[in-house]
């Protein structure tokens, strides 16, 4: 080997080494970028998982509250049946003031319970709407969950409208009792 051949070999190896170094640095930069992306996506997945778990807990709580509301609604409907029968009997047997007073008191109790139920339903709907607005701003899986919760909210609104209808019935019963009381008072005054 001559000095010149040695120098050419060294220059060639130096150029090869520079090219290999550039390739290595490019690949290392790409790997670092992918690593940052993976870490970022991992954090997003953890946050999304936490959100999904919170929504699931909210859904379970909402379902139990809805079951409670349904049970109370059934209870109220069952309470209305004897009230309506009692009112019918009251109309047929006008002289019974104690039964009428008892029925009127029951109607007032049911009315207050209905108002409390309506307030509870409004509060649940407001919380669900707030949760829905928070989750609408996030990714698609949350939007799916929001749609499910919206369906639950629609069910709650149906329950609220049913409660309102029952409230109207109770108001009618109360007005009927009050009218009967006035009519009976008039008939006793003129008798």
Automatic annotation (TrEMBL):
GO molecular function terms attached to this record: structural constituent of nuclear pore
Keywords (A to Z) from UniProt: Coiled coil, mRNA transport, Nuclear pore complex, Nucleus, Protein transport, Translocation, Transport
Localization annotation: Nucleus, Nuclear pore complex
Family: Belongs to the nucleoporin NSP1/NUP62 family.
Pfam family, one: Nsp1_C
Protein's UniProt name: Nucleoporin NSP1-like C-terminal domain-containing protein
Coiled-coil regions, chain positions: 52-79, 107-138
Transmembrane segments: none
GO cellular-component term (any): nuclear pore
GO biological-process terms attached to the record: mRNA transport; protein transport
Ranges for domain Nucleoporin NSP1-like C-terminal: 1-95
Naturally occurring in which organism (per UniProt): Daphnia pulex (Water flea)
